[in-house]
C-alpha cells in the first residue's frame, strides 16, 4: 500500500504489519461505502494490501469486476492468495501508482482507497487521478486514520512517545498521519463538488482485541520499517523502542485498557 515515488510507506511489510491489515474487513473498514454497492458494479481497490477488504468488496459486487492495485509485489501475492482462498473469480491484480493509474478515463463505477492517502506525497493529486478513472456519476471513496486523535486509557507516557515518534516518521517519509481530518478539504481541492463526509471509530477494549492490537504494535515498533527508520534517523534509541514495546504489552494486559482510533471518510460523486 504505497503512494507515489515522492513518499515512502512508513509501515513497510513486516509480518506484524500484515497481521494488522489481514484482520480488516469491508464491514469494519468500509461500512460507509457498503450501502452503495450492488451486483455488477466495477470496482478499483487502490492500495489493496493483503486483500481482505478487496475480497469482501468483490463478493458484494460479483459478477462485477474488481481490480486490485498496490505497489508491492509481495503484498499483491498475499492478496491473490486471499482471493483464491475465498474462491472468487472476479478479481484481477496489477502493480500501480495512485498518481499514475494505467486505466482509461471513466473505467470504474467505484474507486476505493483505505488507509492510502495518509501515505502519499500528494493526496490531492491522488484524488484527482482516482476521479479521472471513475465513471461519470460513479463514486470515489476514501477512509483514513487520524493519529493525533487516538485516545487511550490507562495513560502510559511511553505511548505518548510512540505517537510522537510515529507522526515524525510518517511526515519524514512524505505522508500525513492526521489525514482523517483533512479528507474533506483534500476532496474539495481535487475538484469534487458532491462530497459526503463522515467519520467512524475503531475501538479495542476487550481482552482479545487489546491482546491483538497491543501485541501487534509491541512487535511492530521493534521489527517493522518504522523501527529501522527511527533508529537510522536518530529519532529514537533502541532502549526507547523497547520501552514502547513493553508499554503496549502492559496496556494490553490492563483489565481496563481501552483505545479509540478515529477515521475520516469521504464519498465523492465523480
From TrEMBL:
Gene Ontology terms for molecular function: methyltransferase activity
InterPro entries: Methyltranfer_dom, SAM-dependent_MTases_sf
The Methyltransferase domain, residue ranges: 38-146
GO BP term (any one): methylation
SUPFAM superfamilies, sorted: S-adenosyl-L-methionine-dependent methyltransferases
Signal sequence, start to end: none
Residue intervals passing through the bilayer: none
Keyword field: Methyltransferase, Transferase
Top-level taxon: Bacteria
Region (Disordered): 1-22
Entries under CDD domains matching the protein: AdoMet_MTases
Any Pfam family the entry gives: Methyltransf_31
UniProt-listed PANTHER family: 2-METHOXY-6-POLYPRENYL-1,4-BENZOQUINOL METHYLASE, MITOCHONDRIAL, METHYLTRANSFERASE
Annotated protein name in UniProt: Methyltransferase type 11
Organism: Mycobacterium scrofulaceum
Amino acid at each position: 500500500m504505497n503512494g507515489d515515488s515522492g513518499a515512502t510507506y512508513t509501515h513497510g511489510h513486516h509480518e506484524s504489519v500484515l497481521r494488522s491489515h489481514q484482520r480488516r474487513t469491508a464491514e469494519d473498514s468500509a461500512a460507509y461505502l457498503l450501502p452503495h454497492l450492488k451486483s455488477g458494479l466495477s470496482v478499483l481497490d487502490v492500495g489493496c494490501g493483503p486483500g481482505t477488504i478487496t475480497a469482501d468488496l468483490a463478493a458484494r459486487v460479483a459478477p462485477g469486476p474488481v481490480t486490485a492495485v498496490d505497489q508491492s509485489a509481495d503484498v499483491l501475492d498475499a492478496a491473490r492468495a486471499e482471493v483464491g482462498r475465498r474462491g472468487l473469480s472476479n478479481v484481477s491484480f496489477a502493480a500501480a501508482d495512485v498518481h499514475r493509474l494505467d486505466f482509461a478515463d471513466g473505467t470504474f463505477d467505484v474507486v476505493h482507497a483505505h488507509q492510502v492517502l495518509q501515505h502519499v506525497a500528494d493526496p490531492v493529486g491522488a484524488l484527482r487521478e482516482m476521479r479521472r478513472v471513475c465513471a461519470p456519476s460513479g463514486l470515489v471513496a476514501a477512509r483514513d486514520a487520524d493519529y493525533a486523535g487516538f485516545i487511550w486509557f490507562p495513560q502510559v507516557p511511553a505511548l505518548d512517545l510512540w505517537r510522537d515518534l510515529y507522526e515524525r516518521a510518517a511526515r519524514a517519509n512524505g505522508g500525513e498521519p492526521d489525514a482523517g481530518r483533512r479528507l474533506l478539504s483534500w476532496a474539495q481541492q481535487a475538484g469534487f463538488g458532491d462530497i459526503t463526509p463522515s467519520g467512524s471509530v475503531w475501538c479495542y477494549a476487550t481482552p482479545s482485541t487489546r491482546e491483538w492490537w497491543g501485541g501487534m504494535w509491541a512487535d511492530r515498533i521493534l521489527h517493522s520499517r518504522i523501527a529501522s527508520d527511527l533508529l537510522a534517523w536518530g529519532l529514537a534509541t533502541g532502549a526507547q523502542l523497547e520501552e514502547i514495546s513493553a508499554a503496549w504489552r502492559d496496556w494490553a494486559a490492563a483489565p481496563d485498557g481501552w483505545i479509540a482510533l478515529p477515521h475520516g471518510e469521504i464519498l465523492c460523486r465523480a
